[in-house]
């Protein structure tokens, strides 16, 4: 059976090849395992990745474990990790503070952020990790920044519309990312919409870059557009939620499981419990809107967002 490896897996494999520290290699292997298609054609590859993860964890324990982890390595949590990339004084720290419970240092002077600052944002009932990064600037850019960006699930380009040099800042950021073989973010977060002349500056960006970016006008100060930003971050991760329903009992809709889009019922069963995939006899599908009330689905059925699955073993 062909492996049919996904773009997400191949990207994680590339991250492993480019990793420079044991911690980065381990994170990339774990990402490879989480994104590899689960079927007979990949069973040997899955086993090999698991062996390598186990060996690296044992080696890390012998070295003293976390004491050797660089300060800038941020362990991924929640449904995914999204980094905030941008020039100085673009308002990234204030965005993080407004969208999460984190308390990064927020100041009017540049280069306030010198280390990754993570925070947990919730889109509806899905936790998503946002990470504020030190700025990208000609004056100084942290040398480890590309590694953090590369290990994240997605990135947002954040600019401040009040800055008269915003065009030069965007160009330098794109050049910097290209120099380090990092893909440019698809979404440009146009922050500081409450500033004088912000609307005109945003229109100038649209005229210059066209459909190169998707533009999200927001204001971290007033809260404008932040709900839409949270929704778009969730969509960028390309994941779906599902809920496990015990037979004869209601599902807990407050705590979803999360899978990559395209995952199947057998993947969902494995996510709930490792034995479910092997012992599962059949599965019933429910929807919160009342559609498909208890319809039987096979193991290869593709899970959609907010499906409710009742596994029978």
User: Which class best fits the helix and strand makeup?
Assistant: alpha/beta
Whole-number average pLDDT?
89
Q: What's the total count of β strands?
A: 11
Termini distance?
Answer: 27 Å
For the report, how would you describe the main beta sheet? 6 strands, mixed
CATH topology of the largest domain: Rossmann fold
Shape by Cα distribution: globular
Percent helix among the residues?
Answer: 25-40%
How would you sum up this structure, described in words?
The protein is α/β, with parallel strands linked by helices and 313 residues long. The protein is built from 10 helices and 11 strands. β9 and β10 form a beta hairpin. α2 (22-35) packs antiparallel against α3 (43-63). The protein is globular.
Short description:
By secondary structure, the protein is an alpha/beta fold.
Tags for this model:
single chain, 313 residues, alpha/beta, Methane Monooxygenase Hydroxylase, Chain G, domain 1, Rossmann fold, Ubiquitin-like (UB roll), six-stranded mixed sheet, five-stranded mixed sheet, 10 helices, 11 strands, 19% strand
